[in-house]
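With this grant's support, we have paired protein sequences with backbone structure tokens. One protein thus recorded is set out beneath this paragraph:

_____
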Amino acid sequence: MNIDAIAQSKLITDIGWALAHSVWQIAVVSLALFLLLHVLRDRVANLRYVVSVAALILAIALPFVTFVQISFDRDSNSFRNATQELRGTPALAKENLTDEEMRSANGVAFGDNRSTSGSQIITSVRNWLSANIDGFLPLAVLFWFAGVAFFSLRLIGGFSHLRNYRYRSTTEPDAFWIEKVSALAETLGVKQTVRLLRSELVHTPIAIGILKPVIVIPASLFLQISPRELETIIAHELIHIRRYDPLVNVAQCVIESIFFYHPGVWWISAQIRREREFAADASVIETFEDSHVMYARALANLEEIRLRANQQTPRYATAANGGNFMQRIQRILKIKTEAGTANSAWTAGVALLLTSAFLLAVFSFSSSDVVNAQKKSSNRKLAIGFVPINPLDRTANAPKDSDATARLLIQKLKEYKVPAIGFLSGSMISDGEKLFPVRANITRMWADAGLDVGLGGFKHIWLNNTPVDEYISNIEKNEVVAKQITNRPIHYFSYPYLNTGRTVEDKAKVEAWLASRSYTSVKYTFDNNEWMYSYAYDMARNDNDVNTMKEIREAYITYMGQMFDHYEAYSAEMFGRDIPQTMVLTPSRLITDTADEFFTLVSKRGYSFVTMDEAQSDVAYKTRENFTGEAGISWFERWQMAKGLPLLKEPEVDPAVKKIWDEKKAVAKK
């Protein structure tokens, strides 16, 4: 058979038309699922999971149904043409018949014009499409075959990779954990025999296998998190096995390989993985009483370990830290009790019935419109670091006032789902030997709220005018204090005053020391003079000057809006896109009292709040810079200077606020 014969093959044409129709069909299913998930957003995760799986089944079923229908119609037409030839009315002679004869030949009454107008329009559209698209179908099918082959090979490679995880560099853990897994499996109702292995290759726990399931745990994890936390992680994997999630996941991977060309399939599949993790999380919470915070901490530690190892979660296996990590943490911390899916089964049935009816109606009219189920949204991201954790004591009621400010700030961060990181300045809570109880509790309160803790210096000193050895000793002293506050790993260091030293050599020595302790320095792209506004606000608050406080709040929000414009301009000029921003703030009363206005401003500008890890994982943060000197400036400015480009004009601080700050400096000099 030659190439022309293959191109003109009925099978190739039918496949081509089925693929063409699948574009709009899957898009409509995606849109329907998007709307359903929005309606069911407050329902149990397992219900949303079932609906998402049903949508994927429907999305792949429609193209197959279309293929069968097209093939059947073609065979019917061939049979009809043959019958007409036997009757003496060849199909090719129809074009010479009058309208009346044409209608008579097809068994339609002459006077029934209204009943045929709709079908004539559809027929005309189909004929036009056939004339203009038929020629491209063989090429489209060839592209599809090539894509399926490529993604199938990639899928086979992925499964081969999982096989290595299972059999290479794995050992059985000690008897305690083998017995623990057996007891957990019995508690959770897992009927299959599940093996537990520890591996030197993986950096996140994964469940592998369908008939003979295995849970693979990183060997280091047995030492890096507490036994109770690890128990919840293992339970998460056992729940996946009990639900046959690995089987569903394999089916998803196969479907993604076949329908690789359609974003809707990838989106639906992503929703399934997302809801699957939510459902497993809910089951873990039901199994372990009052485990919300502990389980959230376990997942957070897992993600930190994975990020430090720079390893992606395998897509071909169910992993404990899969899905949208931040959304899972947020749901875990606020989840209480989810009702069983049995009580909501009727909702899923009705939803699926309505979806099917809608799609079948559209399908029956052969609509050629493609529905866009994806709503374009901004991709701006913002990570916020607070220096230091403890609010500065600028009032007569310190540190009691600091405690109140910290509690209000933490409440607002939780309300707006801001995964902030606070940097510890040890001298604020300790004399170097013992902790100051009230102030130390403020820092503990921050850590207990699930917010990240980073290191500053014990004293907030400039590297520019401090010997390197003394500067490093200052950080080491802070490490001792930090260990008394939190047992969570600390990964980030924030240079006091954003000053990185007067020479390249000094900076290199500090960075080398930080790397030796597995610390990463924060690169703040969004530096600002918020601290001037905060100082002026505290002074007005001490004087109980309500009017001035209001004016400062308004001036501060206006100023921050201008600063967003300023640094977004840098981002566009340097990278041609909105890179994730990192912002430094002080935990002042001004920040607390303007939290609603500020976080609303940030959201309206299209930002979502992310962790420092996520922000600084962007490739932009690898841009070189060689700034040294007395100042502490934004990394945008450092990158700009390294390229020899002029700096953009920075928005000025409100004159009244600057005057208050200048007066403070003048008094300090006397």
Confidence is low (pLDDT under 50) at residues 82-116, 336-377. Residues 380-669 form a domain with the TIM Barrel fold (CATH 3.20.20.370). The chain has 25 helices and twelve strands.
